[in-house]
Design brief:
InterPro entries: ANTAR, Bact_Sigma-Reg, PAS-assoc_C, PAS-like_dom_sf, PPM-type-like_dom_sf, PPM-type_phosphatase-like_dom, WH-like_DNA-bd_sf. The protein is of the alpha+beta class and about 625 residues long. The protein is built from 17 helices and 22 strands. It has four domains: about 5-75, Arc Repressor Mutant, subunit A (Orthogonal Bundle); about 90-220, Beta-Lactamase (2-Layer Sandwich), CATH 3.30.450.20; about 240-340, Beta-Lactamase (2-Layer Sandwich), CATH 3.30.450.20; about 380-610, Phosphatase 2c, domain 1 (4-Layer Sandwich). Helices cover about 35% and strands about 25% of the residues. Helix 1 runs parallel beside helix 3. The longest helix is centred in the middle third of the chain and has 38 residues, at about 340-375. About 30% of the residues are buried.
C-alpha cells in the first residue's frame, strides 16, 4: 500500500473516531456506502462527504448509521439520464485511413482530463482505433496532461482527437507498437525505452485502463529546476500568482493564472475593465468590503465569483502590498486559487442535506401511516390462541430500519365445517403500498374462504387479484402459503405460491417440507397451484414464516435456514410441553432489512379441557 493510500486510511479513521461508532462491521459498511454515494452525487472528496455525514448526525442527534441509511435510501437510484453502470472504455472504430482528426466523445473522458490537468509531466490516454476486421490500426489521443507535446508543436489538449500514427509515424513500425498491443491484450503494464526523439531520449510507461492505454513518458537527464517545481505546485493547488508594479505600471502573471482565467497568454494580463466585466454583480458588496480592508493596510483574503466562457468560477484571492511611508501601495502581490470544486461541493452537500431532511420527513410520515394501517389490519395476539384441535402462536418482528414497514401478514381462523384455515404471506416492497396490498390480500382470503376451503383454489383467486392490482400499481407481487387443517383426521392440506417451505419439527428433528408447485402471486395470470397433504402427530410443531426470518445481508439463505432449524430443535428440546412459547421467545432478533412474520401451531387433543367438568367442589 502506498503512502498516499495509508495517509487517506488514517485520515478516514480519525474522522470515524469523532462519531458515535457503529457497533458492527455492517454498520461501517452502511456508512462507507453512504459516503461513496454522497461524494459521487455531489462531486466532492470522500473526506468531505464523510465529515458532512458526521455533521448531519451530530446536528440531528442521531446515530451516524441511521443517517447513512437515509442517505442510501434517497441517493441509491440513478439520476435522470445517468448511466447506472461503470463507464466502459470503448475502442473507436476507424472509419477511414485519412489524416482528419478523430473526435472521441465519452462522458467519462471529462473526468480523466480533469485529473490529467493537474498532473506534472507528460501523460496521455490513448483510445485504440480498429479496422473493419477488428485489428489494431492506430491510437487517438483522448486526454492529455498540459506538458504533453508532439513534434508538430501541439501541446496539452491541442493533441486531443489527433492520431498517434500522425504525430509519431515511426511508432507503427517499431517494437513499441507490439508492446502497446500486448498491454491491450494482456493487461500487463510494460516499460519501453530508451526511445530517441530528436536530440532527447525518453522512457515510456504503459498501462491498460479499461480498453485504452495510459502512457507516461520521462526525458532522460533532465533535472527539475525551481521554476518547474513552482509550476507543478501551481497546477496541483490550482493556483496562480500575479504581481502589479504600480510605480512602473507593469503587471506579471504566472502561467497557471492564465489557465485559471482561460486567457491566451499572448493577450497579456487582464485589464481592469476586462476583469470587472467578469465579476458577478451579486458579489459586489463582498469585493467592496475587501477593497476597503486593503485600503486600511490589511491583507485581503476573499472568495468571489467570476463568469468565464459561460461558466461560474469561485476564486479565492489572497493579496498584500509593499507600501510607502504613508501606507500607499507600491507593489501588490496576489495569489489566486480556483476553489470552484470545493465551493460547488459545499453547495451541493447543503442541497443534498436539505433534500435528505425533506426525504426523512416524508419517510417518517409514510412510516407512521403504514404502521397504523398495519396495526389496524394485522392485530398480533399477545399470547397463544386456541382453535379447533390446535394451539397457535404468532410473532411479528418489524424491520430494524424504521422506514421499512413491510407487507408481511398471517391468517388463522376456524371454518364453519370445524377445520382451521392458516395462511402467511409477504408482499414485495415496503411502505403504504405494501401495507395496502397486504390488507387487500388478507381480507380477500377471509371472504373467499366462505366459498371454498381448498388451498389451491384460494391461491388461484389471490393470484388473479394480485395480477389485477399489478395493472393499477406495476410490480405488485407477493408470496403466500395457504393451509387447511382438519382436526378429526389431524390432516393438513396446503399449497404455496413462491413461498419458503414450512418447517416441521417431529421427534426432536426439524426439516423443511417438500413444496408443491406454484409460482408467486401476480406473475402468471392463469397460474395453477397444487396441494400437498400431511398427517400431523401429537408432539409435532409446524412453523410458517416470511423470508425476513432467514434472509440477511451477512449470510446466505441456506445459512439462515440452518440457524432457524437449530433454534426450533433447541426450543422443542428445552420445553416439549410448551414448545410454542419457548420457540417464540428465542426468535426475537429483528432483521434490519425486512419485516418478519412467524406463525407456529401444534395439534392438541382437548382432553385436558374435558377433565374440568369432573372438578366439582365437594
Amino acid at each position: 500500500m502506498g503512502g498516499g493510500q495509508q495517509a487517506y486510511l488514517e485520515a478516514m479513521e480519525s474522522l470515524r473516531s469523532a462519531a458515535r461508532r457503529p457497533s458492527t462491521e455492517a454498520g461501517w459498511a452502511t456508512v462507507d456506502r453512504a459516503v461513496g454515494l454522497l461524494a459521487g452525487r455531489t462531486h466532492c472528496r470522500l473526506s468531505e462527504a464523510h465529515r458532512h455525514l458526521l455533521k448531519m448526525a451530530a446536528d440531528q442527534n442521531r446515530e451516524v448509521v441511521d443517517v447513512a441509511a437515509g442517505v442510501i435510501s434517497m441517493l441509491d437510484v440513478p439520476e435522470p439520464g445517468e448511466d447506472h453502470g461503470l463507464p466502459e472504455l470503448r475502442p473507436a472504430v476507424l472509419p477511414a485511413l485519412g489524416g482528419s482528426p478523430v473526435r472521441v466523445v465519452e462522458p467519462w473522458l471529462a473526468v480523466v482530463q480533469a485529473v490529467l490537468d493537474l498532473l506534472p509531466g507528460q501523460a496521455a490516454l490513448l483510445t485504440p482505433l480498429r479496422d473493419r476486421s477488428g485489428g489494431l490500426a492506430d491510437f487517438v489521443y483522448a486526454a492529455t496532461s498540459p506538458e504533453a507535446v508532439a513534434p508538430d508543436g501541439r501541446r496539452g489538449r491541442q493533441l486531443v482527437g489527433t492520431r498517434l500514427g500522425e504525430q509519431f509515424p515511426e511508432t507503427v513500425i517499431s517494437d513499441r507498437w507490439e508492446a502497446y498491443r500486448r498491454v491491450l491484450e494482456t493487461g500487463e503494464p510494460t516499460v519501453v525505452g530508451p526511445v530517441p526523439f530528436g536530440e532527447a531520449v525518453y522512457t515510456v510507461r504503459c498501462h491498460r485502463l479499461g480498453s485504452s492505454l495510459f502512457l507516461t513518458w520521462v526525458q532522460h537527464g533532465r533535472e527539475q529546476g525551481d521554476n518547474d517545481r513552482i509550476a507543478v505546485t501551481e497546477r496541483l493547488g490550482n493556483l496562480g500568482w500575479g504581481e502589479w508594479d504600480l510605480v512602473r505600471g507593469e503587471v506579471h502573471w504566472s502561467a497557471q493564472l492564465y489557465r485559471i482565467y482561460e486567457r491566451d497568454p499572448a493577450l497579456g494580463p487582464l485589464r481592469r475593465e476586462e476583469s470587472e466585466a467578469l465579476e458577478v454583480a451579486e458579489d459586489l458588496p463582498l469585493r467592496l468590503a475587501a477593497a476597503e480592508a486593503f485600503e486600511r493596510g490589511e491583507q485581503v483574503d476573499v472568495t468571489a465569483r467570476i463568469k468565464v466562457n459561460g461558466r461560474i468560477k469561485y476564486l479565492r484571492t489572497v493579496a498584500d502590498a509593499v507600501r510607502d511611508g504613508a501606507g500607499r501601495p507600491l507593489r501588490i502581490f496576489g495569489i489566486v486559487q480556483d476553489v470552484t470544486a470545493r465551493e460547488t461541493s459545499v453547495r451541493r452537500l447543503a442541497e443534498v442535506e436539505e433534500q435528505l431532511d425533506e426525504h426523512r420527513r416524508s419517510l417518517h410520515a409514510e412510516h407512521e401511516l403504514a404502521a397504523r394501517l398495519q396495526q389496524i389490519i394485522l392485530p398480533i395476539p399477545e399470547g397463544p390462541i386456541e382453535l379447533p384441535g390446535v394451539k397457535v402462536a404468532v410473532r411479528y418482528l418489524p424491520a430494524g430500519q424504521e422506514s421499512l414497514v413491510g407487507g408481511d401478514w398471517y391468517h388463522a381462523a376456524a371454518l364453519r365445517d370445524g377445520s382451521v384455515l392458516f395462511a402467511i404471506g409477504d408482499v414485495a416492497g415496503h411502505g403504504t403500498q405494501a401495507a395496502t396490498t397486504m390488507a387487500q390480500l388478507r381480507y380477500s382470503l377471509r371472504a373467499l374462504a366462505v366459498t371454498t376451503s381448498d388451498p389451491a383454489n384460494l391461491l388461484g383467486h389471490l393470484n388473479r387479484l394480485t395480477c389485477d392490482l399489478d395493472q393499477e400499481r406495476p410490480e405488485t407481487a407477493a408470496t403466500a402459503i395457504v393451509a387447511r387443517y382438519e382436526p378429526a383426521q389431524r390432516r393438513l392440506t396446503w399449497a404455496q405460491a413462491g413461498h419458503l417451505p414450512p418447517l416441521l419439527s417431529r421427534a426432536g428433528r426439524t426439516e423443511p417440507l417438500a413444496r408443491p408447485s406454484g409460482p408467486m402471486l401476480g406473475v402468471v395470470e392463469d397460474a395453477r397451484y397444487e396441494c400437498a397433504t400431511l398427517r400431523m402427530e401429537l408432539g409435532d410443531v409446524l412453523m410458517l414464516y416470511t423470508d425476513g426470518l432467514v434472509e440477511h445481508r451477512r449470510r446466505t439463505l441456506d445459512e439462515g435456514l440452518d440457524a432457524v432449524i437449530r433454534t426450533v430443535d433447541e426450543a422443542v428440546a428445552a420445553s416439549p410441553r410448551q414448545p410454542l412459547a419457548e420457540l417464540l421467545s428465542r426468535l426475537r432478533q429483528a432483521n434490519p432489512d425486512d419485516d418478519t412474520c412467524i406463525l407456529a401451531f401444534r395439534p392438541v387433543t382437548g382432553e385436558t379441557q374435558d377433565l374440568r367438568r369432573y372438578l366439582r367442589p365437594g
